Each structure stands twice: as C-alpha cells, then as structure tokens.
Amino acid sequence: MSTLSTDFLGINFPNPFLLAAGPPTANGAMVIEAFKTGWGGAVLKTIGLVPTKHPSPRVYVIKSGRDKRGMVDIELISDMTVDRWEKEIDLIRASFPDRPIIASIMGGGDPFDWQEVVRRLEPHGVDGFEMNASCPNFAEERGSKLGQDPQSLSLAVGWVREATELPVIVKLTPNVTDIVVLARAAAEAGADAVTTTNSLSGLAGIDLDTFAPLPNVGGIGIFGGYGGPALKPVSLRCTASIANALEIPILGCGGVSTWKDAVEYLLCGASLVEICTAVMWNGISIIDKLTKGLSKYLEKHGFSASEDMIGKALTYISGFPDLDLSIKLVARIDEQGCNGCGICVKACDSGGYQAITMYGEEEVARVDSDKCDGCGLCVGVCPLGVVVLNPRQ
Fold it and tell me: Roughly how many angstroms between the first and final C-alpha of the chain, as a whole number?
C-alpha cells in the first residue's frame, strides 16, 4: 500500500499538496476549512510589517472561449497586520495542532523588516518561513528586484537565517536569465530549500475601447503576476534546472491543476507542490482528486511513497548535442477516427512540410510519408487525438 506522507525539512506532511501563499490562505478560517478537506499543509498569504490595501478589481482571468489559460493579478501582500496574523495562526493551531503551516514573509532592505516578522510569528507555532523574494508586483528592493539580484538576495536570506532555526525557504522568481544562480546564492546564504516559482511578470491585455490595461483601477493598471496552467512549462524548467545543478530541496509551484501536473514536478525534482490558481478557480475540494489520483499512480508504478519518484526524470533531460538525430519518425492518421476537420492540413501547410492532404469521398486526412519529417505538429493540433508518430520504416 502506497503512502502519500512526506518528510520535508524534518516536517511531516500527510500528503505533498500545499496551498500556496495567496488568496486561498488569506486568513485562518480559510486555512482551517482547507485542512478539513485534507490539504497536506499551507503557506500563509505573505505577511509584512506594513500591510497593503487591495486594489479593486485586481484579478483578470485570461480565456480562449471557455478555456481558462491563465490569470494576472495585481494583489500585493496581506492586508492584515502582524498582530492579527498572530491571532489567526493561533486559531489554526487550536484546530490543527500538527498540520504544517509555513509563513510567507516579505521585507525591504533593512534586516529589521524581516527579522521582526519572524520573531513575532515563530512563537505561535509556524513550522517554517517562505521568503517572498519574488513578487512581480513590487518594485525596488521589495519583490522582484530583490529576487533578481544574487547579492541582495544573499543579504536578506542571511538576515532571516540569523533570526530563526526553523526551516527557511526562498520563493524564487522566473523573471531571471539563470535561476540556478539565484538558488545557489540562497543556499549559500543559509536557505534550507527553494520554491520554484513565483508568477511571471505579465500584462493580461488591453481594453480595446478604453485603451486601459486589464485589470485596471479607475483606468490605471500595472504589470502583475501571471500564473495558472500556462506557467507550468516555465516553472518545470526552473525546477529541473535547479535539481540538476544543486542538492537543495525544492517545492514545485506554478500551474498545478491536476495530480498529473504534481507528478511531473516530483519527477523533475520537487518534493512537495504548492497550488493557488487552480484552488481559486475550482475550490479547495480539488484535494480529493489530487490525492486519489496520486495514490493510484504510485500503486500502478510500484512506488511505496511519493518520495520514491523524486527526480526520476532528470537523467532524461539534457542538451541538444545529446539528441540522437538519426531517429526518424513519420506521422500516421487513423482514418476511421478522422472527422475531416482539416486542422492538421492547415498546420502542416503553414508550419510543417506540406505532407498532409484530404482525400476520398469522406474527405479524411492522409500523410505523404515521403514528405513528412516527423515534427509532431499534427499530433498536437488534432482535436480527436487520432494522429501518432511511428518509427520510419
């Protein structure tokens, strides 16, 4: 029988699914309800000495028809004081004395900003601290600028390290050229783990009638944090890059919507995953599908625990010179399953090798194997999944 229980930095998590710092962990009552449904832990919404007011509106969901692709938000850190958070954490601990709670914290260019929050929250039973050194909505030394400069990041991590013996986790930004440099700086300064990653800096769009950014407050907007499903490839790359380069524990974060997404993060080197956008869109009850799906996957592949699969994909991630360019594939279309939509034909004509045409009375797609180069574009665009790549004979 497989177990989802995970030991991370000396903390026992009943399962590897954590609520990420954000709106779903904005107060104690929300965290308590999440724990009741079975979440393995929670990272509290970022706490600072100076709370921030929330703009209205502050969230814009990016859609293609009914399909939600991502979300940009311009919300900053918690609007509650440290005093209030002390009481909120006490409420959580009264209901769940042993469920892991990580406090997300943020400060500026003064050690007091960071250390005072740590000193005040630690007595209330948090299990560790996640430094928000990467919020893309902030400028100057708070937020993204701090997370983009190794020297500044090292200083801030050192300040927090001086203030506590509890685990210190650094949430890294993807808005850098080489995230491994920042992860190494954090580790050398005393961080116990890193989270990959915070949101990308993004602009959701422009209102074509008013010319104002989306979202905007009274017509004025700012660059916000872009998260959701479209962020996953970026965060997965960051996770694998750090796992291949450094021996530091990793929490994966970015675009996790299903148990399959979580498995990908674990295979790329993460030990736990944090989820925010999917919870905001679908509710905390998604934890049931997440845990059940992961349990079935573990049993199917013979893993006794989720920890057993960590990093299993890393040996297969390499550079272009290591690719075997002698391997040649060719597309094959299941003509009985083809509905004649012609999407693959248009794609191949404009982005491939003009190898697919429509034929016959029923107008189904057929591949000219002499022209096909096996690029895989047709496989990706087929809405019915009836195109596959086979070895070229």
Answer: 43
Domain that holds residue 308: 6-316
What's the whole-number average pLDDT of the chain? 95
In whole angstroms, give the CA distance from residue 97 to residue 198. Answer: 28
Residue 159: CB atoms within 10 Å: 20
289 and 193 within one domain:
yes
- 196 and 266 housed in the same domain: yes
Residues 200, 226: contact at Cβ < 8 Å? yes
Alpha-carbon distance of 264 to 334, in angstroms, equals 29
pLDDT digits 0-9 by tens, 288-322:
999 999 999 999 999 999 999 999 999 999 999 99
Average pLDDT, integer, range 18-39: 98
Q: Do both 52 and 154 map to the same domain?
A: yes
107 token code pair: 């400060």
295/338 same-domain check: no
Strand partners, 220: 217
Q: What is the DSSP letter of 287?
A: H
306 and 329 inside one domain? no
Tally of structural domains, the chain = 2
Q: Contact 163/118 with Cβ under 8 angstroms?
A: yes
Confidence of residue 350 (pLDDT cuts 50, 70, 90): very high
Asked which of 259, 288, 316 is the last residue of a domain, the reply is: 316
Decide if 135 is catalytic.
yes
The answer as to whether 1 is a domain residue is no
Nearest-10 crossing angle of helices 232-245, 179-188: 50
Q: What is the amino acid identity at position 122?
A: E
SS3 336: coil
> Which one of 135, 253, 372, 382 is the catalytic residue?
135
Q: What CATH code is carried by the domain that includes residue 265?
A: 3.20.20.70
Alpha-carbon separation of residue 262 from 42, 232, 290, 297, 372 (angstroms) = 16, 10, 8, 11, 35
Tokens 């002499």 sit at which residue?
370
Is this structure's pTM higher than 0.70?
A: yes
